[in-house]
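Supplementary Note 3. Input sequence used for the single-chain structure prediction.
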Amino acid sequence: MPYLLSIWMAACSLGGLLLPCAPAQPTPALPWHTLPEALAEARQTRRPVLVYATAPWCGLCRRMERDVFPAVRPLLARFVLAELRFDDHDTILSLGGRTQTPFAWGRDLGIEATPGIALLAPDGTRITHATGYLDAASLSLLLAYVATGAYRHVSFATYAAQTAPR
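The predicted structure, written as discrete structure tokens, is reproduced below.
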């Protein structure tokens, strides 16, 4: 037993390269809001909104939540996050005098299926959207396009071409 302890201490003194020296801290959950809550916060904070359409049966949604969102978390912090349950045809959300289900709001934002993402300006205007699985590099590019305000000056295609590695 003392032998194992000395190996563990040596690994820690090497910066934890061989063994983790402290238990991994769980990553806090992302602060998801309903769409009306997110839009209200966006107006107050002047941050854009990321609307994420998901469903319990969506395997690619779980993959994005597990692999992609943690990888782009610093960029996500620049957005107000809204989650729409694309399978919800019963709940009624009221926005700007209109009432619709989460599914209907998602369709209005251009989301055709899950996983789906719509990016909105702080005033609720849709900037762009994407339907389907996005890897971390693709989502990072899309988020940076909106977070930097580049969408006000150039198309996404131009932005992507200008920022692509050469």
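The chain has a mean pLDDT of 86. The first helix runs from residue 2 to 13.
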